[in-house]
Design goal:
Blueprint lengths: L19 H7 L7 E5 L3 E3 L10 H17 L7 E8 L2 E8 L1 H12 L6 E6 L6 H10 L8 H12 L6 H8 L3 H11 L3 H8 L5 H10 L1 H14 L30 H15 L2 E2 L6 E2 L76
Parallel strand pairs: 2-4, 3-5
Antiparallel strand pairs: 1-5, 3-4, 6-7
Helix pairs in contact: 2-3, 4-5, 5-7, 7-9, 9-10
């Protein structure tokens, strides 16, 4: 397996805006909003792509190449780029679609016949910050690995006035996750190599680095050396089999709290091995201490039962009378009563749903 090239966390590239139309004409691209650009005329920005050329990446690229060979290149998935000046020449730089371009070039090396690819050209050209952020936000098909994202974050953190919270917002992740990926990308070489080689997961490596970077190197290196070929190191392989020691300290009412704490401390001292050679006893193993206090729960007064609400007395219906029109049940309106005026008719617009009318 070839040695993996780790992407640089610093890109020294000054973008000089170029002319789109002359560049497309020089590349013999068709003049449309989506240009058909010869494959050889599409140039990746040197060192810009943070994808690690790992075995996993190669498999993903080869799968894409196989799909393109079977179905042709999907013209609805154009690459993205911009035009910049390079030695007084207009160059079409690639900003999105690195893996697809790589797959097409791999396919063409194997007697493929894809001569051009659709490219959307961004004009005016984006800033380097926008391009760097897009490395993460535009890769939803195969998201960046935590290590690759760490390279993106490291680049962004080097910019003048960079703020972690702002970067987290632009990348759509939490500030805590930014700390995690930076911890990984800035971690010891042995740990990074184990992650890039697929020997240990990024999550497990970050967990160990959080605890102790020096111990993480030793534990991960030893576990990788003992792991079977093709198998990832598990959390279980990074340490000895753990045992749980249960201790109980009885508590009586009116007991001295100092004595209770001393009894609990003695239980912990008896359970945890120590280095007796030290002037001050030091714990000889890694582990955790979980303390559970079991006491009677406070009594919660029961809520008073609600009395059923009294039903309102039914209003007596007025006695029915018959007026002179001879209709049984018709109510007689006295001279003092006002006749109710009917509200104006409301006609709804046929294009407006009923629930949208403000009545």
């Amino acid at each position: 397996m070839k040695k993996e090239a780790i992407p640089s966390s610093k890109i020294d590239l000054h973008l000089t805006p170029g002319s789109v139309e002359p560049a497309m004409k020089a590349a013999e691209a068709s003049s449309s909003k989506v240009y058909k650009v010869p494959v050889d005329a599409i140039k990746p920005i040197p060192g810009f792509n943070v994808r690690v050329q790992s075995t996993d990446y190669a498999e993903h690229r080869d799968n894409i190449a196989a799909l393109i060979k079977a179905n042709g290149y999907d013209q609805t998935k154009p690459l993205a780029g911009f035009v910049a000046k390079e030695d007084d020449k207009n160059v079409i730089y690639l900003t999105d679609g690195h893996t697809r371009l790589d797959a097409v070039k791999q396919l063409n090396e194997d007697d493929g016949k894809i001569e051009s690819l659709p490219v959307i050209v961004r004009s005016p050209p984006p800033s380097m910050t926008d391009l760097t952020v897009a490395l993460h936000t535009n890769n939803s098909g195969r998201p960046l690995t935590p290590f690759e994202l760490g390279v993106v974050v490291k680049r962004l953190m080097k910019e003048d006035g960079a703020k972690k919270d702002d970067i987290a917002t632009r990348l759509g992740v939490t500030p805590r996750y930014l700390d995690d990926v930076l911890l990984l990308v800035n971690g010891p070489k042995e740990v990074r190599s184990a992650v890039l080689d697929g020997k240990v997961s990024s999550t497990l490596a970050i967990q160990e680095l959080r605890k102790d970077p020096e111990k993480a190197v030793k534990k991960i290196t030893e576990a990788v050396s003992k792991a079977k070929p093709g198998k990832k190191v598990t959390k279980k392989a990074l340490g000895p089999k753990m045992q749980k020691i249960q201790s109980t300290v009885a508590i009586e009412s009116d007991a001295d709290m100092k004595e209770i704490v001393k009894a609990a401390a003695k239980q912990i001292r008896d359970a945890v091995p120590v280095n007796d050679d030290e002037e001050t006893p030091l714990a000889a193993v890694d582990g955790t201490i979980t303390i559970t206090v079991e006491i009677p729960a406070p009594e919660t007064p029961k809520p008073a039962a609600k009395k059923p609400a009294k039903k309102p007395a039914k209003a007596k219906k007025p006695a029915k009378e018959e007026d002179d029109i001879g209709i049984p049940g018709a109510e007689v309106i006295s001279e003092d009563d006002e006749v109710a005026i009917l509200p104006p008719a409301i006609k709804g617009d046929d294009d407006v749903p009923d629930d949208g009318l403000d009545i």
